[in-house]
Every structure is written in C-alpha cells, then in structure tokens.
C-alpha cells in the first residue's frame, strides 16, 4: 500500500469554506474556473499523488541515480510519475491562459501541489520546467520567448535554478562564475555551480538552467550579477535543438535523504564552450532570480507541511490499530485488557501536537496563497500593493517555520510508532531523511529570519507587520465566536501584546548592536509564526463551530477536530511567546565576546 495519506477535507475547508476561493473565480484572470471544476481538479490530482507519485516514493529512495558522461538516469518509477503528470496535462495549472493554462488561481495551484509534494517530493522537484517557461515568457525578449517558451511547454523540458557555488554557499554575491559577451544576447559562461537540484535527468529532450553569473567588468556583490538562460542542448534562432552545450553535470551529491532528486555539480565550460542568453537582455539578475526564489520558498514550506500532514495521518492510523498496555487507570491490574495506544494520554498529546501544527501550517500557507489570489485578481492598485507586501512578509515565515517545525515534529510522528517507526516498514524514517534539507534550501532558517526582520519589518517601520497582525486584533475586538471562545480570544490578545513587545524590544536593541539581532532573529520568526497560526486556527474554529449544528456525522467530527486543534494550540503553543520575550529581554552579547578557544 502506498505511503501517502492526503487531507483533502482540510484542503477543501481552507479553500472553499474559510477563504471562499470560489469568490475570485468566474471573472477576470480566473474567468474559466469555478468551484465544481476546482474540486474536480483536486480529486484528480489526489489520484495522481496517491498513484504514480506515492508508488515511486520508496523505489526512488532505494534505486540509485546514475551519472554517465554528464547524463543522469532516474529510477524508472520516478520518471514514470513525472511523465504521468505531463500526460494528464497538469502543467496547465501553472500556466497563464495565453500559454494554454486553465486559469487556476494561485491557491488552487498550491493546493494541487500540496498533494504532489506529499506523494513524492523528489518527483515533484522535476516539474519546475513549466514555471520557468512562464517566467521566460514574462521576462524574456520576443526572440527568447520564441526560442524557448513553447518548446519548454510542449516538450515538457526540465529546468533548474543555478545560484550556489562551492566557495560562496549562501553568499550568492561572492559567486565567481563569469560571463563574457559574444554577440547580441549571447554570452559565454565559465564556472562551477553546486547543489543544483535536478541539474540533469532523463526524459525531457532538453533542460534549461537559469544561471547567475558576473559579466566581465561588473561590480562585485549581488548587484553585479546577471541572469542567463543556459540550455543543456543549444537552441538555435529557429527553436531547433542543436549541439550539446558546455553545461555539464560533473557530479551527483551523496545525500542524507531525498535520494531520487539529482543534486548536481554543474560545470560551465566543461567539454566545450558554455553559451547562454542574457534574460530579457538586461543586467538585472538578482531581481529576476527572486521570482524563482520566492516561488521556491513557498514550495519548500508547502513540501514541509505536506510531509507533516501525511506523517501525522500515518501515525494516527497506527495509533488506532496498535494494541499495547492497559488503560492507564488500570495499569497496576495485571488482568486488565490491553487497549489501542490512542487510548493512552501521552499518545493523544503527541497526536494533537502533530494535528494542530499540520493544520496550523496549512492555514498559514493558504493564507499566503489567498493573498496571492488577491494580487492576481484585484483591480484596486492599493489593495494589490497591500496584499503583495503581506505575501512577501509571510514567505520567509512559511519557508523557515514550516521546514524547522516539521523536522522537529517528525520525530514525534516516529515516536508514536515506537520501535517500529525506526524501521523501513513505515515511511516516517524516510520522511525525516527527505525533510531535513528543507531547513537549508533557499537560504537557511536564520537567513530567512534576518530577511523577515530587516527587509520585511524594519525597512517599513513595521507597517506591513501591523497590517497582518491587524487581522488577528480584529477577531479579538469583534469577539468573533462569542462565548464559546472567550478563553482562546484572551490568549490570542495576550499573544498579540507579547509580540508587540518582542518587536519593540528587537528594534530598540538593534541600535546597540546588530549582533543582538543575529542572536535573536530566529526567536522572533518562531513567535510571529505561532501567533499567526493561533489566530488562523481560532478563526477557522469559529467557522467550523458555526457549521456544527447542521453538519453530517463525518463533517461534525471534522469540525470538532478543528475546534480541538485551535484550543490545544492556544493553550499549549502560544505560551511559548512569553518565554521567548523573556529570553529577548534577558539576552546579552557575552556569547560574542567569548574567545573561540572556549567553545
């Protein structure tokens, strides 16, 4: 039986009951989409996720990738999953209508990809080509579009983002890859790139690399970088695939997990000249690449949450079946019957810890997706700018918190299984191995925390942050949910006050030393993430509680579970904000004064 257990019911609740995504359908950019079609999309993508994607999860982990003369061969089951995606034309979810897309709002696209990430994240990475084709259509010159866009879409070409270098790591501006102008928009690149996800794989006729490189004579740092379209096989002016280009995979990393994803060393200039086209014929590399980076940050947060969700549901199923030990009230009675472990208090605690975080992270991500819907659909310029700023603020939180918390809580999922969880009979041990990289992708957790603090909060003096927190404050002020949620609203109100104090303390202490922020930024990100999740879970609980009276038996259980998640999170997780504020206020710089010999 395939490992993946989806939570389509909670996905549908987020989309259609809480955010009412159907309200942006039927007009404007989403004129050809309606609720019934969207629900059917999710049902069909779920079949693919539970089918070819989930079925390739374990074989992909056990069957090694091979590298021969710069060509990477995938495990057959993984390649079959990727082919099944394209055979069903699901790339239309990510494409604008003028490129053959189906007019899906961002929230529906992300919901569909949640299912695929959960089925097999390694296989899902190979689907980047569609997004890159749409990006070239958005940023490229007319001739670049004619050479690449339709070829990439119709031919299901692969694509990568190429930033990291062996000596530079996350310090992208220290990259040494060079670009020399040849003629028109054609440049020759030289250098070595590392950790390139899916730098090569069999199946597509071509793979397109988006490469950051420094043109001859350009300034140092990130501002001197430009972005180039570098194909595995050269594409001539007519769009015909020509000779092999000098962008060659010269190694595959041996990794802790995510074995079926080809993490490559890419040598530019190996075996011959490496040519590329300056994207848009403009030297604006970092700004252009941020389109991909922001997409990747949302994707990684989504991948993490989806893994947490299926891990929890696997643990839940096991807890309902595994019989071990007597009821705790009769543990001294040797004749007491043995019970299922879901009847033990600590197992219930572990399950609700997983459930509330999985649902809270999903709520956080779909809140970000809803803002992207608004950016794409509104005709109000001010509303569009406001939604875009809120979305930008959420991205580092989504990426960093979901990846860190999922890795932490997967150990709780494994613990639910006891010793069996440590064995490959169950998928949790592979989830853990495949998940850890998410805390490192697209910038480590601390890099995301610094981005949140400096670029998203301090830069506009907290204006966008206050707008986001204003939604939570409104829930409290309006006494939403009535008497049923008095205690939870009070805890949320206290959390808002603690968060305000935390940010004020941070902004004030920043004037003393930037090191102070370096020591505490992660705490601020965690507190903000959990405050927002507490708000969203409570707001969703209000919606669920209103529907309980007329709900069917199965829906009633679901809605009761939503209320339980909100109550548990408010009482168990929100108090951590007080602890972190105490740490913030009591911290000092003594750690930075300590001589390294003392470590």
- Describe the global form: globular
Ranges where pLDDT stays below 50 over 5 or more residues in a row are none
- What's the number of extended β-strand segments? 14
Radius of gyration: 25 Å
Compute the separation of the termini in Å: 49 Å
What key phrases describe this protein's structure?
alpha+beta; 19 helices; 55% helix; 5-stranded mixed β-barrel
Molecular structure report:
- The chain has 599 residues and is an alpha+beta fold.
- It has helices spanning 8-18, 35-55, 57-62, 76-87, 106-119, 121-125, 129-139, 142-155, 285-321, 345-377, 381-417, 428-435, 445-458, 463-477, 486-510, 514-547, 553-572, 576-586, 590-593; strands at 66-68, 71-73, 158-162, 178-183, 186-197, 207-215, 226-231, 233-235, 241-244, 247-252, 263-268, 274-278, 323-326, 338-340.
- A hairpin with a 2-residue loop joins β4 (178-183) and β5 (186-197).
- The protein is globular and about 80 Å long.
- The model has no long low-confidence stretch (mean pLDDT 96).
Quick take:
By secondary structure, the protein is an alpha+beta fold.
Topology:
Blueprint: H1 8-18, H2 35-55, H3 57-62, E1 66-68, E2 71-73, H4 76-87, H5 106-119, H6 121-125, H7 129-139, H8 142-155, E3 158-162, E4 178-183, E5 186-197, E6 207-215, E7 226-231, E8 233-235, E9 241-244, E10 247-252, E11 263-268, E12 274-278, H9 285-321, E13 323-326, E14 338-340, H10 345-377, H11 381-417, H12 428-435, H13 445-458, H14 463-477, H15 486-510, H16 514-547, H17 553-572, H18 576-586, H19 590-593
Parallel strand pairs: 3-6, 4-6
Antiparallel strand pairs: 1-2, 4-5, 5-11, 5-12, 6-7, 7-12, 8-9, 10-11, 13-14
């Amino acid at each position: 039986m395939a490992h993946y257990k989806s939570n389509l019911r909670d996905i549908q609740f987020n989309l259609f009951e809480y955010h009412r995504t159907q309200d942006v359908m039927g007009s404007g950019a989403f004129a050809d989409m309606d609720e019934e079609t969207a629900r059917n999309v999710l049902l069909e993508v779920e079949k693919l996720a539970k089918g070819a994607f989930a079925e390739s999860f374990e074989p992909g982990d056990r069957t090694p990738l091979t590298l021969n003369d710069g060509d990477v061969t995938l495990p057959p089951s993984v390649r079959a999953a990727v082919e099944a995606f394209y055979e069903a034309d699901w790339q239309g979810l990510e494409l604008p209508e003028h490129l053959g897309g189906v007019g899906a709002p961002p929230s529906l696209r992300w919901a569909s990809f949640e299912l695929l990430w959960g089925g097999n994240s390694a296989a899902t990475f190979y689907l980047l080509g569609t997004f890159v084709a749409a990006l070239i259509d958005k940023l490229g010159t007319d001739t670049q579009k004619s050479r690449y866009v339709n070829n990439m879409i119709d031919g299901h070409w692969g694509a990568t983002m190429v930033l990291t270098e062996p000596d530079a790591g996350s310090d992208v501006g220290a990259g040494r890859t060079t670009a020399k102008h040849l003629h028109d928009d054609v440049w020759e690149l030289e250098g070595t790139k590392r950790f390139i996800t899916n730098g090569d794989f069999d199946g597509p006729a071509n793979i397109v690399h988006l490469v950051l490189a420094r043109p001859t004579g350009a300034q140092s740092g990130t501002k001197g970088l430009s972005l180039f379209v570098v194909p595995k096989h050269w594409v001539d002016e007519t769009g015909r695939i020509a000779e092999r280009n000098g962008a060659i995979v010269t190694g595959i990393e041996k990794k802790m997990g995510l074995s079926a994803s080809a993490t490559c060393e890419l040598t530019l200039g190996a075996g011959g000249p490496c040519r590329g086209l300056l994207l848009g014929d403009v030297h604006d590399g970092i700004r252009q690449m941020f389109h991909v980076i922001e997409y990747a940050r949302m994707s990684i947060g989504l991948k993490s949450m989806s893994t947490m969700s299926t891990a929890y549901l696997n643990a839940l199923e096991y807890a309902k079946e595994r019989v071990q030990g007597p009821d705790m009230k009769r543990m001294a009675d040797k004749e007491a019957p043995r019970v299922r472990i879901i009847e033990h208090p600590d197992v219930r605690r572990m399950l609700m810890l997983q459930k509330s975080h999985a649902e809270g992270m999903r709520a956080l991500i779909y809140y970000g997706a809803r803002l992207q819907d608004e950016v794409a659909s509104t005709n109000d310029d001010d509303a569009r700018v406001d939604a875009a700023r809120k979305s930008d603020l959420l991205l580092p939180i989504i990426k960093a918190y979901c990846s860190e918390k999922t890795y932490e809580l997967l150990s709780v999922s494994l613990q639910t299984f006891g010793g069996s969880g440590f064995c490959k009979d169950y998928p949790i041990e592979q989830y853990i191995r495949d998940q850890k990289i998410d805390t490192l992708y697209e910038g480590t957790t601390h890099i995301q925390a610094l981005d949140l603090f400096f670029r998203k909060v301090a830069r506009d003096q907290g204006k966008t942050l206050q707008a986001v927190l204003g939604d939570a404050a409104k829930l409290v002020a309006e006494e939403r949910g009535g008497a049923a949620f008095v205690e939870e609203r009070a805890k949320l109100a206290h959390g808002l006050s603690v968060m305000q104090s935390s940010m004020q303390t941070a902004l004030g202490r920043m004037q003393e030393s930037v090191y102070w922020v370096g020591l505490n930024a992660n705490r601020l990100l965690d507190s903000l993430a959990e405050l927002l999740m507490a708000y969203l879970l409570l707001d969703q609980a209000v919606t669920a509680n209103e529907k309980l009276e007329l709900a069917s038996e199965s829906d009633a259980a679901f809605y009761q579970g939503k209320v339980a998640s909100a109550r548990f999170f408010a009482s168990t997780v929100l108090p951590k904000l007080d602890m972190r504020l105490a740490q913030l206020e009591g911290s000092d710089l003594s750690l930075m004064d300590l001589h390294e010999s003392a470590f």
